[in-house]
């Protein structure tokens, strides 16, 4: 056992020193601050769905127009995810998180203030840039500051704040939209800008600093973290002072598609695409389906959305406590499989009433929310530090494609099938089956392995 601090000689030594740190108050503080940002990302992301019944009436939108109104935010998230990952691997995790937060907060306020449909759509696209960039980069950051043992649970308990944000958005919307209108809901979406001072006080990822060759900065940052951890625990464990060296390769987006990583990239992109296609396609349309097809009142429709989000939150918490025991591949593939089964049962037996739909949709949310959360920790583990944020961003971008096409497909299927919910949910079930088979076949297991070991 040793309390001495040896100057960092390599990125591998920085990683070894990070691995010896027990989960401490410093780690919890970082998780809470980053988690607060991610909470509001979730809060802002589905406000458009909960506001859509009023927005559609205000601007007399058709089903096709509603689909594109929802999809335009997904297009912004797709672009934001790719740009955010690129910038995060070059200019730092914390810097990109701060810029992303400011963008989605300010644009949310703009959406609440404008009376122009054109400006509303433009603001929604620009807000999507911030929403899409923040979550994958924050997931990279949290994964990099956490040691291998228990990393899955630690990261997923952080990620759970995202569905909590979705739930709170639904709860607030169910009261605020009918009582005061959707504009006040979007105004609340500007609140996260108050978190900027806390983010400026958060240390950058030592692993990222080292990967950029900034070993002195990495050492100074790590010494500050070690000092805080030592105050809590006293003597720190020793670490491997001569860890195996990683292959030195210049950071490049193209490396995601190299011989070594292209199978991982294709697998994880498929998982993101299918999971978000199902999740966002259903979640964004449920309030409209309830009001238009089942003639349910606006307030009741929003309450139904709260129920599905709450059930999804249970799925997130469940996978957080299972993922380190069962492994990433099994948790993700099995959850997609059960989501597909639930959707097929909904298509066959549950489309007769709004109550049946909400119960089966809640069952789907239980599994599909779990997949969405597990993918954040899994994707961050599959790539080395030099391209980790870009890997997470590419997975996130694939998810944003799902966010774009999920709502669009709902509009197309409803139009082509004369509002047949059986055809609609069968389509979603087939998409979930594809994701399940791809992850089960091509996924690799990463539980209890250090980030350096996985990518050595």
UniProtKB/TrEMBL annotation:
Keyword set includes Iron-sulfur: no
Main location group: membrane
GO cellular component, one term: plasma membrane
Bilayer disposition of the protein: Multi-pass membrane protein
Cell compartment(s), UniProt: Cell membrane
CDD domains cross-referenced by the UniProt entry: MFS_SV2_like
Residue ranges occupied by any Major facilitator superfamily (MFS) profile domain in the UniProt entry: 30-447
Keywords noted in UniProt: Membrane, Transmembrane, Transmembrane helix, Transport
GO molecular function, one term: transmembrane transporter activity
Signal peptide: none
Entry-linked InterPro entries: MFS_dom (IPR020846), MFS_sugar_transport-like (IPR005828), MFS_trans_sf (IPR036259), Sugar_transporter_CS (IPR005829)
Transmembrane spans: 66-87, 94-113, 119-142, 154-176, 182-202, 266-290, 302-323, 330-351, 357-379, 391-415, 421-444
Protein name: MFS transporter
């Amino acid at each position: 056992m040793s309390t001495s601090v040896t100057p960092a000689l390599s990125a591998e030594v920085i990683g070894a020193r990070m691995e010896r740190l027990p989960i401490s108050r410093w780690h919890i503080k970082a998780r809470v601050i980053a988690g607060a940002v991610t909470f509001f990302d979730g809060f802002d992301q589905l406000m458009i769905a909960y506001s859509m019944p009023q927005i559609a009436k205000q601007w007399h939108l058709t089903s096709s127009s509603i689909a594109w109104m929802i999809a335009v935010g997904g297009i912004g998230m797709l672009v934001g995810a790719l740009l955010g990952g690129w910038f995060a691997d070059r200019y730092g995790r914390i810097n990109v998180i701060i810029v992303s937060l400011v963008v989605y907060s300010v644009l949310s306020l703009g959406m609440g203030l404008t009376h122009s449909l054109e400006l509303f759509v433009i603001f929604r696209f620009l807000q999507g840039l911030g929403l899409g960039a923040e979550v994958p980069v924050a997931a990279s950051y949290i994964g990099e500051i956490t040691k291998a043992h228990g990393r899955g649970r630690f990261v997923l308990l952080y990620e759970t704040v995202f569905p909590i944000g979705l739930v709170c958005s639904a709860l607030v919307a169910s009261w605020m939209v009918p009582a005061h209108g959707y504009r006040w809901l979007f105004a609340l979406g500007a609140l996260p800008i108050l978190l900027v001072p806390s983010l400026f006080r958060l240390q950058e990822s030592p692993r990222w600093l080292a990967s950029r060759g900034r070993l002195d900065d990495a050492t100074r940052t790590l010494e500050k973290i070690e000092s805080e951890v030592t105050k809590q625990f006293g003597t720190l464990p020793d670490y491997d002072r001569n860890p195996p060296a990683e292959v030195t390769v210049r950071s490049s987006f193209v490396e995601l598609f190299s011989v070594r990583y292209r199978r991982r990239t294709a697998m994880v992109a498929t998982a993101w695409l299918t999971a978000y296609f199902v999740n966002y396609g259903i979640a964004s349309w449920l309030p409209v389906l309830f009001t238009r097809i089942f003639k349910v009142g606006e307030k009741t429709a929003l309450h139904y959305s709260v129920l599905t989000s709450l059930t999804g939150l249970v799925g997130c918490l469940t996978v957080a406590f299972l993922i380190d025991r069962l492994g990433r591949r099994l948790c993700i593939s099995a959850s997609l499989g059960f989501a597909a089964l639930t959707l097929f049962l909904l298509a066959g037996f549950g489309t007769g009433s709004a109550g049946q739909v909400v119960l089966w949709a809640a069952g789907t949310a239980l599994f599909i929310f779990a997949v969405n959360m597990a993918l954040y920790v899994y994707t961050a583990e599959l790539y080395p530090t030099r391209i980790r944020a870009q890997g997470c961003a590419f997975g996130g971008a694939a998810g944003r494609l799902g966010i774009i096409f999920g709502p669009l497909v709902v509009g197309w299927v409803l139009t082509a099938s004369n509002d047949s919910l059986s055809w609609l949910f069968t389509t979603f079930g087939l998409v979930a089956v594809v994701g399940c088979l791809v992850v089960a076949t091509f996924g690799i297991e990463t539980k209890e392995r250090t980030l350096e070991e996985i990518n050595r």
